[in-house]
Amino acid sequence: MTSRRWHKLAAGVVLAVFVLSATAGRIIFGTQSAGRRVGVIFDVTPQGLKVLRVVPDGPAEAGGLQAGDLLVALNGEDIVNAWDYDRAASQYRRGVPVEAKVLRDGTPIILFVRPGTPVPWSSYLFVSLATLGYLGLALLTLRQRSGDIRGRLLFLFSGAVALELSLPTQLIGAAWISTLSVSLFFFLTGSQIGLELHLASTIPEPRSWLRRSRWFPGLFYGLGLTAGGIAAFSVIAEGMGVLWLPDWLRGTGPVLINYGLPIWATAVVLILLGPALRHPERDKRAQAGLVLLGVLPWMGYVYFGRAFDMFDYVPPELYAQVEPLILLAFPVAVFIAIFRFQLFDIQLVFRSGLVYTSLTGLLVLVFYASVGLGGALFSGLVEGGRESLWVFAGATLILGLLFAPLRGLLQRVIDRRFFPERHALRQRLTDLAAELPRLGKLSLMGKHLIAELCNVFGVRSGALLVADPASALLVTVAATTADPEQDFTQSFLLTGDDPGLQQLKRQARPSPTTPLVALSAALAQRFHLFDADLVVPLLSRGELAGVLLLGPKESGVRYTAEEIELLGLLSHLVATVVENARLFSAATTDSLTGLPRREAVLELLEREWRRAVRYNRPLAVGMADLDHFKEVNDHHGHLAGDAILNRVAQVMASNLRAADAVGRYGGEEFLLVLPETDLAGAGAVADKVLRAVAQIPFRLDDGQTVQITVSIGLAELGPGVGQERSSELLAAADRNLLTAKTRGRNRIEPELPTPNNSAS
Known about the structure:
alpha+beta, Rhopdopsin 7-helix transmembrane proteins, Beta-Lactamase, six-stranded antiparallel beta sheet, 28 helices
């Protein structure tokens, strides 16, 4: 073992032994002191011990002691100073009356007081937990393999606080121990001032002014140790009854507590605020912000304590008990920032914590300021007590109305100042959601959305699946891994009652794909096909409007909690856009196939027929029907049948010319409208569609392969066909479709000289 490791081990053992021993002594001596305590606070004066305050419901109050009484003797022994009182108190026994002689307005009075107060076990518990917390943190810091000065400072600071908390104070009957403990308390407090200021100036890295001016740390320690040393000396002098001390020296301890602590806390906050706001590196800003967040509870505690003193308000006992635990937030934040920063998503924690901590403190201060100022102004105008209730109610109402605007303002300010990258990312995602409606078609929206998200988050793959409003089936509308129009497996449908989708709907937030794989084999297959690592539900009015799948990042790092939160916000905006697009297209578009509905395609046919008749232009129509489709539904289920219909529709649409149109006529029938086309041209188009459908690789979930073919009946506008009504043209195509079915299927009627016009 190296000498350095021996030194660390020795330092840790010494610190642990001292702290644990002092903690045990604190509890033992404290228990004895509780039996001797009478509940009175003295002020050391040249005349003797003067009762400064009597604790309500304590033995002193029960015995008749009052504030202002001058203690002269106890059980016949003269009392001149605190040491005399402590020597007499060492003989107290719980419940045994003590004769106290006091001077009240110059008149001697004999009173009998029965010492003994409850043992403050809850206080010992809180302090002991905090002491062990600081000791554990100091030892944990000591174990880290780092030559970083911040680690050494954190060890010294945590150890100093652990020593301070373990000291037995406010003892009765052990004056020299109590005086020594209090003086050591102030000395340790002075050392903590220097250590914390020095430590704060090295987070996230040593400041430039600290590197340029080596005397700054000396200034920190000099100020802290000087203040703590003077306060410690005054405690020892007062305990020994030295009355010649000047007033300013006699009150050093209270001055350090009442004024030094707020200045100290403010200085630490100001030192950390600069890098938290202005450091050029995002992670360094987050590190400084994390430590700043750890300081804020302590600063709030200090300022509220000062306010209580100013208004002569005695806080509840719990207020003092939680102080050690509040103090623990700072060194824990420093430890994480130095040694464990990469294990936490600090930026989201800091942002949320700072928002709510600052906002709560702000509203509380505004509340009390409003009530106090309003009460003062109102009391000068009216007399009586009822009006103060209206002042209180009015202030509360105003604060309630201001809460939401203040929260939003503070949120925006913190996002812009502390995390400009996050603010920019949020704005970019908001702009992306606003761009989608202008693209019109849902497929175009999906392609643009996936492309932008892959670019923004550095993602390898993505896909958008949209639910049919009527059947809740999810259809793939966009994907980066492959084109759904060219790969049947990627256009295969998911039913809305899928267990994985139901779990995702209940969660209502982005989720890793791993936990959902065990719930649904079908969903697991889609995750594999789309290389999905994160799934984002798109919920509209509590219903699943779609699912957004995102693959792993190119960098290999995981999605942060902040990114997941932003994707959750984006999902609400995208879900609204998707829902509006679905509602807009529902009137004219078949939700399953994405083609025009029967009414829409017939309306189109009517327009083209009128134009062709008026201008004597050619027009052809085709009626297409899937062969043996009932058997597919019977053997493989309607879900597989729906997926096949969706795929066939895509293939038909992609194999038509730009001027042509196809719509779902009903069931498995499709209507082709071919403007400016005679029967020969229609045959060429129909043959292309026929061959494309026959070549689709329909591989189902169970591994089976299904061969799908289509029969097409054609008709053209001409003498005796369709001249009076468009329905005549449609009827002629339907008759030819029936002929194609009876002649063997997978063919075109009327039979035309095309490369493939016979059954295969």
